[in-house]
Amino acid sequence: MVRGLYAAASGMMAQIARQDIHAHNLANANTVGFRGARAVVGRFADNLATAARVGSRTAGAVYVQAARHDPADGPLVRTDNPLDLALSGSACFVVQTPAGVAYTTDGRFRLDHQRRLVTQQGDLVLDETGPVVVPEGELTVTERGELFCRGQRLGQLRLVEPVNPEPIGRGLYLASQTQPPNAVTVHQGMVEQSNVSTMLEMAQMLSGFRLYEANATALRYQDQSLATLQRIVE
After folding, report:
1. How far apart are the first and last CA of the chain?
2. What is the DSSP letter of 1?
3. Neighbours of 31 (CB within 10 A)
4. What does the pLDDT read at residue 52?
5. H-run or E-run covering 221
6. Residue 77 in contact with residue 190, Cβ under 8 Å?
7. Residue range 118-142: average pLDDT?
8. Rounded distance, CA 89 to CA 110, Å?
9. pLDDT tens readout for residues 175-201
10. How many CB atoms lie within 10 A of CB 80?
11. What SS3 state is found at 48?
């Protein structure tokens, strides 16, 4: 396989993968608590150096290594609903789902029939000891995540920073490791909007399309050169 053809084709495939990521971000631009992803593309210079070192004809390609979670905060919108919570910082709420523990930044909570604090889908919101149960009365949440009702302290919201979180749908993330959050603030009566900028995503999609076209042109020229060379040899 000619390395130039492979490099150009891999560049086209990388741009297709990037477009899928940007399209997913745009589709969730109005999803509460959604935090977008950023494509991590392998550097051509590094891959070409690898090709030279190992003597591979297919090494040296450009490819999307991963879709990295963007931890940046989204804008906050006031709702004045005491069960709506938003976070400033890279922390997530911890919830108990039927499949196990998961993490979310969608703080549109409600009370179930047992007065447990749950997500819109019914997953239990956890504090330091387990599910949050709210007695009769209005819930008050401090900026540090402490829970009070009629002056009685109920507990402390469990807030963590997932390491390399993987989205699983419904605004939830999984992570094999977590760490204590750094400088997190809880805002009661507010929700966090998506951190996706539609203008930026559209600009990046347009840039990716131009790069795709450039790689397609390079591929076509190399194919024409090979065809010309074949005719000369024959």
Report:
1. 20
2. -
3. 16
4. 56
5. helix 198-233
6. yes
7. 96
8. 23
9. 999 999 988 999 999 999 999 999 999
10. 8
11. helix
The residues spanned by each domain of the chain are 3-71+196-233, 76-192
145 backbone dihedrals φ, ψ, rounded to 5°: 90, 10
HSE-up of residue 72 (Cα within 13 Å, Cβ side): 11
- The pTM of this model reads 0.81
Rounded distance between C-alpha atoms, residue 98 and residue 40, angstroms: 32
Query: Which two three-digit tokens encode residue 128?
Result: 């330091």
**Taking Cα atoms as reference points, which of 121, 117, 129 lies closest to residue 188?**
117
Residue 11 token pair: 């560049």
At residue 66, the pLDDT reads 76
CB neighbours of residue 45 within 10 Å: 9
Residue 20: exposure state from Cβ atoms within 10 A (0-12, 13-18, ≥19): middle
Read off the tokens for 118.
Answer: 């749950």
Report the alpha-carbon distance of residue 38 to residue 151 in Å, rounded: 44
Strand partners, 85: 188
Nearest alpha-carbon partner for 203 in 5, 1, 18? 18
User: What distance in Å separates the CA atoms of residue 109 and residue 73, rounded to the nearest whole number?
Assistant: 19
Q: What H or E segment, with its residue span, contains residue 206?
A: helix 198-233
Region 121-132: mean pLDDT is 96
- Give buried/exposed letters for 175-198 (b at 16+ CB in 10 A, else e): beebeebeebebbbebbbbbbbbe
